[in-house]
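Problem 12. The chain below contains 114 residues. Write out its predicted structure in token notation.
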Amino acid sequence: MKKKKRNNSSGIVYSTDPDFNPEPEEEQEFESVPEAEQQIRISLDKKQRAGKVVTLITGFEAPDDMIESIGKEIKKFCGTGGSSKYGEVLLQGDFREKALQWLQKRGYTKSRII
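Solution.
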């Protein structure tokens, strides 16, 4: 079965008005904060992860695609797996020091380990 693309995501299903034109949704432009001013927090987390330890990096103020590329580079530097979701980067294992080292090399000077 082929999925249909929906151009209208405003929730309007049907209108009886023949002159009705839905207003297009405006995409918000994201103003990126310079790396030196972002307060990145690195913490160790094992809540709801079946006892497994992950390094959680939060506080990024950048678009999602940029956070995904940052996550990919950090994972490559640390030599581990992980994910980038909801403005956070997860690394499998305890890589707080390595992540801090990578962030400071890239200009995130206000990074700190919690």
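Discussion. The domain at 38-113 is CATH 3.30.780.10 (Translation Initiation Factor Eif1). Students who got a different answer should revisit the alignment rule from Section 12.3.
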